[in-house]
């Protein structure tokens, strides 16, 4: 399974839809997309991981890299994820404390509405 | 002798081949279905780490993965030939220190969190990571 | 260097691993979907033949399969270490000569019928079978 | 995919249903079944290959071995197969001339009815 990427804006959020495997082989494409979005002035990213089958530490590295980039612009990078197998990887690496993780896009949007 | 040994050049695509082989052999060896995800991920991590290390230090050298199913356990050893001077030890999480490259040590953290049993042997001549999982009694092939 | 090399002990179960690896890499290399069946079968045949030969002559020795995707073709070489004195040449079909063991030479016939290009190198030290198929331009990994 | 084997008698024929992969790993089980059937006096075998996903030359060898055994008792071993990928293997090895190959169990039964 390869990686499919898509994105669109909703309110102030840029929603990045990720489908497939984020691994050492495909992660560079996600990295490029995140860098590109930030360069174009999108600083509030919400990455939807619900259709991700496989995530390895290269993928984690790319997400962390994205987070650092948006933070440099006072932005945010948050995740939508309910899959236990994927959540486990964030937990093992302690990254649940670093990323906001929501159960749905709507829940994330709501939280954002409150913040701002 | 390792039951199966896979040698591959330091390319990300081959990490997928290694994952595929490890998962297939784990399944046959009788590793529980619920653990196969962990096998796939941990073996992938170890191989990704090795690929990154080779690309930085010795892109022309091959990486080796050995898979054994004797001894009642499914055992995987990934060996690279890159000098491991990076001291990938555990550090408290500090975002400013995290880079989006491999030196962040997530790989080792993931492996340690997933494998039933892990040993890491760093050396100036390369790193060896040995992981293992319990193998069911209904595994078919020995040897 | 071969892109990927797999070494395995002479057990029938490992033939499945070899088929799996060959099919996965062929797909990635851009071999047409319609040819993947032939790759799987031909590689399986070559490995089965090697396993049978090792079990008869040298069960402790490993079998080697190399998979390359440089040169615009997907190339697979299966090498065994069993003396090949069996003269598996083509013979007219005569049921009384056919046995249900490997010496019947079906394996080589199947390989010859399926691979786009085959070379067989028998020698007193073992047999080497090299097969190849055209690889698409949209294969991803070189090296 | 592993190998599933089943068999039952219809008229004078013993129909052997084979499902899955007949390869170097599973062929020994098919060989045992054929030997067992012959030892128990079943000399007219019809092997239904319609659910076979994979057949290699070890499998061919087992079928040829079965054919020799039934012939020693003036019996027959025939096949039902319409799958092109499987037929191809019989064609490549010249075995289409050795085995009767039918498009369905009924067709095979009819041909047998005429013969006898
Ligand atoms: N080297 C490879 N290149 C491309 N695809 C591969 C390779 N090896 C395996 N695949 C394919 O990728 C799919 C996924 O493999 P893998 O990531 O190991 O497991 P999963 O998708 O089940 O997590 C497999 O179904 C296989 O066909
Ligand atoms: N060593 C093995 N032992 C048991 N099963 C295996 C082994 N290697 C692969 N498999 C499984 O067998 C299945 C079939 O593999 P294979 O025969 O190569 O292809 P196919 O069934 O597509 O013809 C694969 O889906 C894989 O999960």
From TrEMBL, chains A, D:
It holds the Pfam family STAS. The keyword Ribonucleoprotein does not apply. PROSITE patterns: STAS (PS50801). One of its GO terms (molecular function) is anti-sigma factor antagonist activity. InterPro entries: Anti-sigma_ant, STAS_dom, STAS_dom_sf. Residues 3-112 form the STAS domain. Keywords: Phosphoprotein. Positive regulator of sigma-B activity. Non-phosphorylated RsbV binds to RsbW, preventing its association with sigma-B. When phosphorylated, releases RsbW, which is then free to complex with and inactivate sigma-B. PANTHER family: ANTI-SIGMA FACTOR ANTAGONIST TM_1081-RELATED (PTHR33495:SF2), ANTI-SIGMA FACTOR ANTAGONIST TM_1081-RELATED-RELATED (PTHR33495). Belongs to the anti-sigma-factor antagonist family. NCBIfam families: ant_ant_sig. This is Anti-sigma factor antagonist.
């Amino acid at each position: 399974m390869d990686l499919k990427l898509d994105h669109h804006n909703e309110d102030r959020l840029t929603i990045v839809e990720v489908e497939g495997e984020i691994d050492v082989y495909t992660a560079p494409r996600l990295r490029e997309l995140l860098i590109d979005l930030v360069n174009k002035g999108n600083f509030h990213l919400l990455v939807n991981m619900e259709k991700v089958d496989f995530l390895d530490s290269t993928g984690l590295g790319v997400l962390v890299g994205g987070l650092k980039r948006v933070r440099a612009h006072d932005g945010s990078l948050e995740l939508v994820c309910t899959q236990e197998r994927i959540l486990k990887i964030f937990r093992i690496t302690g990254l649940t404390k670093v990323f906001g993780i929501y159960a749905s896009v709507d829940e994330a949007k709501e939280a954002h509405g409150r913040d701002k | 002798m390792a039951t199966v040994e896979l040698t591959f050049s330091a390319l990300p695509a081959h990490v997928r081949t290694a994952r595929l082989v490890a998962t297939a052999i784990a399944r046959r060896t009788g590793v529980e279905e619920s653990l196969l995800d962990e096998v796939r991920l941990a073996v992938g991590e170890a191989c990704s780490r090795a690929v990154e290390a080779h690309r930085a230090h010795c892109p022309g050298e091959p990486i080796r993965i050995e898979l054994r199913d004797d001894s009642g356990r499914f055992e995987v050893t990934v060996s690279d030939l890159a000098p491991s001077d990076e001291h990938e030890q555990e550090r408290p999480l500090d975002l400013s220190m995290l880079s989006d490259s491999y030196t962040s040590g997530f790989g080792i953290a993931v492996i340690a969190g997933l494998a039933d049993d892990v040993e890491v042997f760093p050396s100036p001549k390369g790193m060896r990571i040995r992981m293992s999982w319990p193998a069911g009694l209904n595994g078919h092939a020995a040897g």
